[in-house]
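Hi Y.,

Following your request, here is the sequence exactly as I used it, all 404 residues.
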Amino acid sequence: MRKTLLIMGMCLLISGVLFAGGKQEEPAATEAEPAGSADTGMSNLEKSLEADAGALKLKAPDGQPLIYPGFIKEFPKRPADPEALPEEDPGRWYDFEYAGWSTDKVNIPKSPGDGSIGKKIIMIGQGEHPYYTAYNNAAKAMAKNYGIDLKITIPNWDINTQNQYVDQAINERPDMIILLPLDPKVSVQQFKKINEAGIPVIAAHMLTSEDALKYCLLWTGPDEWAPRRELSKLLAEKLGYKGGYAIMSHNPGGSTYFSRAYGYVSTLSQIAPDMELLDIQSPGFDAEKSKQLALDWMKRYQDKLKAIIAADDSAQMTGIIEAVKQAKRDDIVLIAAGNSKVGMDGVKNGDILAINYETPAGCAATAIKVAADWFNGKDVPRAVYLPPVIIDKSNVDDFYPAQW
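Below is the corresponding structure, written out as tokens. Let me know if you'd prefer a different format.
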């Protein structure tokens, strides 16, 4: 398994009620052995710290560890005015890629330092999707390991419902809230409201804005930018550092839109200046629309089009692969974010050059792990990233069965 380790500031990973369209999940039984289940005469903190060993043994459905070792991430100096830089300049995206590291924190609660066992956490998710099924199951497994009472609420992609769940969570007065923000702009008020209620809060999965992160203990999730840079290197090498490429982006507005579009653009402009960006469009996550867009690109750009980059290795990539085969364009190189079964099968049979490991289980487990660390009085960094891991034909078999 290839793990790409970046050199940048130390981040260690050791250590039904329904609203409109939403739902909540109560804790479910998992394979993890709950912490503190036996009376050993140890204190709550001692039992909680002992649960670390169990956390490191837990595995995701694909056999990969739920908790990856930490990696070092170097933080370059911030440009004086990032927004004044062109989109092709990596510095233009500094505040997107490195959000949360330089902001002054506001009203951050002090850890009780008395252990995780018996603590109540409410996790406010995003929506129904196979990715989040795996995410929620892993969160429950890790919570059970640490003796945490976890409740998960799911607003089904509706920001108004998520706001309602934030209010409900505050009223329940849990020991912590973990929020997966749907909208970076709206999340500022969400995190501020939780912070002002005196409840510690962790931002998870989707990287939000600098203004929002000042109210949070920390942010944890995948490093969305590092895999784009690594995939760009593989693509450039495959194409001999020349040729045109087009990008099917994520839905506009969120952090993944910028990383899964301009992470590639800003990297390729530096390492392969002879490669040309032909187009960026957002067809959504619909296979037929993605297929039609890919066919339109091939018709419009003809032989200039040498690569298509997708924000999603499942629905978008399904449409792209169908289009390439229909047009008999086996010269077009494909890369994508994510490692669904569709994407991994595409890598295995040679339709896709490479993808990156997007572990919903590891992402969720890490959020619960750092929450437990905080309850246990450990120092936690401002951001905890999952390390970037690239999947190609040489190692794809290591990641079956797919988590989603």
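Residues 255-271 form the longest helix (17 residues).

Thanks again,
Q.
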